[in-house]
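Notes continue from the previous slide.

Worked example: a multi-chain complex. Inputs as given:
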Amino acid sequence: MLWLAVTALLLATAIWGRLAYWQVAQHGHLTQLATEQHLTEVPLPASRGLIYDREMRPLAINTTVYDVTLAPDLVRADERERVADSLSSILGVPRDGVIGKLAAKTKFAYVAKRQSKDKADQLSRLRLPGVYLQALEQRSYLPGGAGDLSLASSMLGFVDYQGNGQRGVEAYYNRQLSGRDGFLSTYRDLAGRELMLSGETRRDPVNGAAMVLTMDSNVQFAAEQAVAAGVKAAKAESGSVLVMDTKTGGIVASATYPAYDGNQFATADPARTRDPVISDLYEPGSVMKVVTLSGALDAGRITPQTTIEDPGYVSVGGSVIHDWDLKSHGTVTMTNVLEKSLNVGAIKAMQIEGRDSYFHYLEGFGFAASSGIDVANEANMSLRPATQWRDSEVATASFGQGIAVNMVQMCAAINVVANQGRWVQPHVVQSIGGASPGTFASRQVVTPQTAATMTQMMDSVVQHGSGYMARVKGFELDQAGKTGTSQIPENGKYSPDHVWASYVGFMPADNPRFTMLVVVRKPNNGSADHNEGYYVSAPIWKAVAEQTVLDWRISPGG
Amino acid sequence: MVTSRILTRRRLSAGAPVRRRRSSRPFWADIAASPAARRLQLSNFARVYAAAGVVLVLSVAYLVVAAQATQSSYELSKLKDQNAQLTAERDQLRYTMAAQHTPARVEQEAAAAGMQRSNQLKYVSKQPVTLNLRAPLGPEPSGPEPMWQQAIAAVFGGAREALAAGS
């Protein structure tokens, strides 16, 4: 009897132990499994905020597209031909591929992704067995100034298939634009049907904020057209135009050619999705002379009438540096230095000013730090301390070689002259969800008198100097500009053939409305002279300025 | 065994009206035990039929409720689909409208209509104006009216009206 009792006790202990294991030890895990089986969470995606230009014209909006899927096991053998023919003719997918998927008799297969609503409607009308449509929100961009580009693609960036902003404004303001997804959590029966009376947990989605940019669609379009035409005409590698509102620092247009179509980002060349205006550094060349001479003027070390001797070259720190034309210019004023873009004159002005003062102004004009523009991936090369520069390096920096900046930094620096000596932070967003994105930094760099003097000198560049090809009819006496051509460093030395050709200017000179910088990379017009900024970039500047004058109703003298 | 207390109670109650005691049983048991109920007492088969009938009624009621729930669920699903369809159409229209107004589209339409953009700016040269913009605003101070105007005004009520009437 004893052994029977012991056996029974052991069996009972085993059963109780097992029960305790499932009901106590595994309680949490089993509860979770049960919840997972019965509770279904349906995501409620938030709608991405739209993007508008300064006149509330849409730039980026949302559309619905459809993924077309197939349940091959639900298609009877005698219907496969019809289904394959229909899918092939409407979606343009290979018929044999569809037949293959249908023959596989799997439960699920993709037929095509991101199809337009028109195609989805055609498929719906056919009521094909085993064919399903899944609606998705997609970011859509508007046509741009060149055939294969969307408007402002470089500046706006794009939104990937996961709904994340990539590059440009879409990336920088991704959190504000994307909002917060919601969800609906309900119980379902064994067949997956929703139990209507079981109660539900719901969190409504919060849609992304609408965004208004400082950009002007019309100017942007004109800039895209002009830069595309200019790059093609000069057989250049690429080109960019940046237009800034003089008073506010708001970016009016930022165009690059070649760029990409934001609607076709998946098939675009990744190199083209990079915005060279923001993310590439370049050596600005003679455009930098505006900064050098402005500093020297503001420090009281030179005047526009200060004269120097220019034999066509100067020896600095053991290096001989020449003027661009390799000619002697004799006695020249500082205004002549700017008009004729003389390297020797810029070096002498910097030497007269002094190294410390020169670096002080470089910092003031915004070359010591990134511009802080609210666009993703701004490139910046920090300015080394003045003591770490060799004399020859400082000398070449005075005319814009050996110093790397991005286009936004350069345009903002020239804008100091246009804006009465005040640097204003470049920015793209005017408002988010109806509210201002915040305050933008500004600082006085040179006095208004210095800025006015430099403006006169830049006027003279257009009237008497290298800027003549940028003259806008009616504004010949009222526009300021400066050309620039800089050699591109390749494999550790400056290339004799490849240059950055640029032109910067603002107008009307006496009350500037916009400041614009054009940079064309590696023009290939057949001769060095025809690859210069005055020849390649100034006409692009002129074309955009003419259109801006019309759109903004700018009249000479006012 | 009948006790004297019971007998006493019987005697007392023989003359007095019978006072109905509250039954401890539930009311439906009383009804079931009533003569009328006894007359209606069902056979076993009838009970089975009745039970089946009750089950049938309940089943039908359940089916009706379930059908209504299914119908509501179906309609809800249909409305959700319609809503999604309308949202998609709205988005499509919004894009089409936006695309129609883009500079690219406008230029395309203009080109199709045979128009060309002229890059030749023309400015209207302003003529010198002889107006004295510094002069004070308001009507010019008028001097005393001639005697004949004053006379007409006295008769007709105002020189201007009289002249207008005569013209």
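Summary box: The mean pLDDT of chain A is 92. The longest helix of chain A spans residues 2-25.
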